[in-house]
Amino acid sequence: MSDIRTPSDRVDRTPSDRVDRTPSDSADVCVIGAGPAGALIAHRLAAAGHDVVVLEAGPRFDPEDRIEQMDDALRPAHGRPDIWEMGGNRDAFTSSGDRQYPLNHARVKGIGGSTLHWQGMVMRLHERDFGVASREGVGADWPIEYDDLRPYYAAAEDALGVAGASDNPFEPPRETPHPMPAFEPSYSDSIFAEACETLGITTHSVPNARNAEPYDDRSACVGYGTCQPVCPSGAKYDATSHVEKAEDAGARVIDQVPVQRLEHDDSGEAVTAAVYATPDGETHRQEAREFVIAAGGVETPRLLLLSESPQYPDGLANSSGAVGRYFHEHLFAGTGGVIDRETRQHHVGFNTTESHQFYDDPATGTESGVPSADAEADDLGAIKLEFFNYAGPSPVDAALSDGGWGEDLRERVADTYGNHLTVGALVEQTPRRENRVTLDRSTTDDHGNPVPEIHWEIDDRTRRTIERANEIQEAILADLDAEITWQVGPTETGPAAHHMGTTRMGTEPGESVVDDRARTHDLRNCWIAGSSVFPTGGAMNPTLTIAALALRTAEHVERRL
Amino acid sequence: MTHELTRRDAIAALSAVGASLAGCAAPSADDDGQSADGDQSLSDHDRGTLSAAAEVLYPDDVTAVESFVERYIDGRATDRPEHAAGIADAVEYLDEYCQAWYEADFAALSVDERDEALRRMSADEADSVPDGSDVERLRYYVINDLLLALYASPTGGQLVGIENPPGHPGGLASYQRGPQS
Questions:
Q1: What's the ipTM?
Q2: Which of A131, A210, A298, B89 is deepest in the core (most CB within 10 A)?
């Protein structure tokens, strides 16, 4: 029998209604949240022999259901939040500001967290990203450098299983190859390569947390093409992998136990317990020596704000007033069109070619076709260009959304599918103090707690950067004589589902929430893991950095045990 | 040119709708199209009605429709019995509608009459909603189910230019290939 496992081969766990959700007697560490950050920390500390308890608000999804979930995802009748059961009173929120923030499209609550629905793109931040304030005068510098995180990036690539190649001339220095070879380029990559070569744009492979070959007892990708929102084969990494490893190492992972608040001691210097609710209406207190909050960029600051006390009326770990502030995202910019030949889209659900040429230096053009940015508009954030392998409508979606049937339907689907191209981009958003997560005390969740309110707007620099990305995308498609049929610019843009900045890391306790180890300035045993600690987010998908920081924080927590 | 739906297509379609990895081993249709274990929540009438619907919904040059649909539906009924119940309810509504307008069950109508009946009830304009109105549920459990089965299979994908459509685990070679002449 093969050692390779699909999600449905995973170990059976106790049925949900028979799970023991009472607290552990003598936990060394309580981790709040079973996404990638919490799972990696729980695994490392449990493997080191420590008594670890993980409290997760969402359920433990049955791996047997993955293909049914894919079935639902393929049908237009089911929205993205439905697939992983997001929504309802549990997940209620308020969106304010000039941008509607689609929070429940952008996260998953459950064992595995948002890696259950993520795309699986895993790039290292560039060296530039750690010192944007010093170099460009915007945002904030990180209190650590790329070199501080570099070995942890390598460890994170091993942990997640990254397929990649060392063919990116723009990426920061790395010491070892990726653990798996990169996925081969797609046919449409070869179309883009012609244009990019003409224009002087260097393209390269994409690091994917997706098995190009069997890795870590998980299957190689078999091409279901539904990476977002669900991978039935288990080839795409998700944090259930490290939850299982943590449990195998002795950790307790309890699902459906949303933490309501944290309690602190009389001195106000240490957290004493996480108070959590169970599905049967019980409330328990989990005591521990160390607490790690890893609940994502919205629920982490919300929990700190909900943990207000007479000593901390503005919320826990919030002497800086920065908890919830500086919420920032990556913005999507995209341009799409059609050409007069087949482009072979939607065979797989992931990308195989990118360009980081306009990341560190987005204003500079090329000698052969991409103009430089106008001098009065050359203050720009980072741009990461993506060449899609899933441009245009999916033939399955087109067939099910059309309304018709028979020969007419076949002809319309064949006409709709086939010759689309898309150049996408992630664009850096400048963190602003005004963009923030607060408590909406006028609305409560299923446990009577104020829901998170997200105030999110986009500044002029970010708008300019989106326009610049569009300009580069148009140049590429123009070289291919494409008919541009749509564009997502500053008006149409939306978030990439990367919640950053709301408990930012820094050296000054008056300006930041956690120190350079990710421990809160205010409480000696309270740690935060996840992208909420990012002072700035560059334009790279955040999960590899989340994982690297988590592994680094695990070492710091262990030193205190 | 005809496009014959094969046992491989039926298994591929099942893989897109919940019977995938068990599809080869789970109770399914024998080569003669009969149920292997007889333990289906869908009756022979239900299965025949779905085949009759597929004759309308699928392009004219698709062949071996009946055996494809029966394999697909049997696998579906085994793996998602609650979904099979939705199919059975939708078939019941379809027959009630056709009895009222044509004084015959849907499967007894000619292909043209079946097409007319579906359009008369505005199934071509209805949203696909699993807990919606009668027609919306028909759209979800019958029409879109059968269209998903076809277009998530290799043969169905090839009808529109893709041999590895989303939902089908067709490997990593096709995305690298250029158009086939």
A1: 0.93
A2: A210
